[in-house]
Fold this protein.
Amino acid sequence: MLVPQLINGLTQGSLYALIAIGFVIIFGTMNLVTFAHGEVYMAGAFVGAFAMSLWHLPWFVALVMGMAAAWVLGFLIEKVAFRPLRTAGHMPPLLITIGLSIILKDLAVVLFGAENRPVPSIYEQTVRLAGVQVSVLQLVILGLAGTLFLVLRLVIQGTKIGRAMRATAQDHEAASAMGVNVNRVFSIAFALASCLGGAAGVMIGIYYNAVYPTMGGTAGLKGFAACIFGGLTSIPGAILGGIIIGVVENLTVQFLASGYRDVVAFLVMVIVLVLRPQGLLGRKLKTV
Amino acid sequence: MLELRGVSTRYGPVQVLWEVSLTVGEGELVCLLGGNASGKSTTMKTILGLVHPVRGEVLFRGRPIHRDTPAQVVRAGIAPVLESRRIFPQLTVYENLLMGAYTRTDGPGIRQDIEAVYERFPVLRERRGQLGGTLSGGEQQMLAIARALLARPRLLVMDEPSMGLSPLYVEKTFEVIQDLNRQGIAILLVEQNANMALAIAQRGYVLQTGRIVLADTAQNLVNHPMMRKAYLEL
Amino acid sequence: MKTKMVPMLLTLFTLLLVAAPVAWSAESIHIAVSAPLTGNFAEYGQNWQKAISMAVEWINAAGGIKGRPLEIVYGDSKSDPKDSAALAQKFTSDNRIVAEIGDFSSTASMAAQPIYDRAGMVQLSPTTSHPKWAPGSPWSFGIVGTQAGEGPFMARYAIERLGKKRIAVLHINNDWGIASKEYFVNAATEMGAQVLGVESYFETEKDFTGVLTKLRGLKPELIYVPSFYNEMALISKQREKLGWTDVVVMGPGSLYSPKLLELGGNSVNGLYTSAVFFPNDPRPEVQKFVKGFEAKYKATPNMFAGVAYDAINLMAETIRKVGTDRKAIRDELVKTKNFPGVTGKIAFTERRDVVKDYRHLVVKDGQFTLFDK
Ligand SMILES: Nc1ncnc2c1ncn2[C@@H]1O[C@H](COP(=O)(O)OP(=O)(O)O)[C@@H](O)[C@H]1O
Ligand SMILES: [Mg+2]
């Protein structure tokens, strides 16, 4: 049962990683933390769920719609909560995103009800790989997450806007002096981060067959933990952090009990941070 | 070419520049001198559009640019060499150069210009795949200048390019500046190192707590009693 | 003469009929109902209210209780222990009220319990199933059955009816789930089954892949899952996706809800459960209730409507026998041995709760059906 548990952990962890990367992109470029990221993920999940269960669209269309919706929502959040307060320090945007997260959650309760909303199953088959029975859906999710990591890497490393994002992250005044429209970069970074969160939301909905208004709470926390775990500003670190949290959780279920999964996952995180305050792949301090 | 007319700039409630006026002519090398916190960098940022003046105007080739975004200023032909170099430490040398060409869209032209700066600074070609942060201070300064050149500027605005460099690289930096100026690029050189700046500049301004207190030819400034007292005693 | 008399008599009759509800000669008998009419559990409270109103209508249409109409005083507790206690104060100090029905959850019922106990008024809860509840006061009664009865019933179902001996348990980690698990595991062990492992999950859990993978490693023939339809749907779907098909899934009557079928789809086919109330039950009292409810409310009654209907009828029957004295009602209620409820026969144990006759159910082609093998 160890190999199936590892696959469970890997699948779940890759979705945490997608959320975590969102925090990394936002923190990396803007030096700010958003508390509404979990709710953006929830919104993406709902759009994906509706696309599949109400409008009977294929899952990949649902995925694209969920990502698009999250993109738009992220774009708006940046405009409303971050843009006007760019020079106001860390606290005001933080408080605004806490408020936004509550509003979005309550809005979802009012609009959709507090109950689980079912998401249709896809890929219910399993395959045998090297003697182990593996769920096709898990493979699909792993493949999708991997693809998104790759695409993201290509965008950030290989495109002009990706380069502008990295430059802005390192020194936004210098980037601005080079002619980079820093506001636009922030907008795009926030939207991109949100879009990945939305993708994770749609996939989680499909994976567990349920979406619900409060789903962003723990997911946001886990994603944030994975981001800190991986060093706050490192995308590979966030991926590693997400996967470690996912795997540790499932091993905890296997060898301890289901109820301890979050406790052990956060405990491991605390231990890593005590030993390596900069996170797994983080640098000591960002030089400005 | 560049003209500041009665420019006043403030950071929130704190006014830093008071009616600063200066000009840089076509192909001219002008230095802006002044002690610490006198407002030299703020003057630069105002020109570059990083901050906007509350009063007065900045004209470049006859067109007001003081409401423009930094991108528009760069496109108009002004490129910055920022204080303490400010290269992007986690981008490669090559990527840093590309950032200098950020507002340009002419791919072949950019490649050609990168070749040209590699010719001028062979060390950058050698290190093109290395992260900017791993270069020595002097190499970073060369990169900062090269990056600015990638914008194909008519005017370079340089903020204390000699600061923190070894004497050898200070020497080299001033050579490069002179060289660029001889090729026809106008330069506004902000310096605390008044001796060396006045040695290569044609004209100079002296800024004191945000006001221009002296404006003259380099020669006259070197001989000015106030200058001798305040800035040239090394 | 004759021709004049007919319209006159008809008019008189009509007047009497129309005026009937207000034309009672005698004073009403008041029964209080403490229920969640708003809030999170409003759905359940409203089911009660529908069933009780219908029963009262029928009773009064048939002449009330010895000529006196029955009247319900509703109180909205939101199933919150603070509110149910406050309502208990209000009801017990109202001299017109002879007995109370409620509350919905164990917590709300038990918070009000000492107040009814001190005042000496019957508190009959249609739904409280905590084994400690009814024994807590001589004035407390429960008619929904307890896990102490359901656990052994389900164990017998699994072991004797289905012949499954290797069993694992996955339960929700709250008072109810723990009690459910205890009674089932104890009974199953006594009956000679092997309980291979017990796992639990928190109410908010949505990811069951880990815990299912673990249980699968134990190779059980049957997993018993004390849970609610929401999680059961997820558990079933995720189990299916993991390809774990060589196992029988069973859970207590909490799963008996159309929502389970709606949410679980194909994955809940073959799931075994039980019910105290099954609308397709051919017994006449059940069919009378179901038909009446459907005609009035255009919906099939569920278990919550069923137990509330039984509660009010049992109360009315008792008052019919002994009158409106609070103490007399209690003393008569205790003796109930053979009341034919729509949720089964009601006979109080000495703890003043009941051992229900559960129905064996299995999900077949997306429907709950009676299991009769
Ligand atoms: N971003 C800023 N916000 C507030 N005050 C600033 C800012 N930048 C510079 N100043 C103040 O403006 C004055 C001039 O600074 P600066 O232009 O950097 O001087 P210099 O470059 O001549 O040393 C200083 O008193 C400095 O503290
Ligand atoms: Mg300065």
About this structure: DSSP finds twelve helices and 14 strands in chain C.
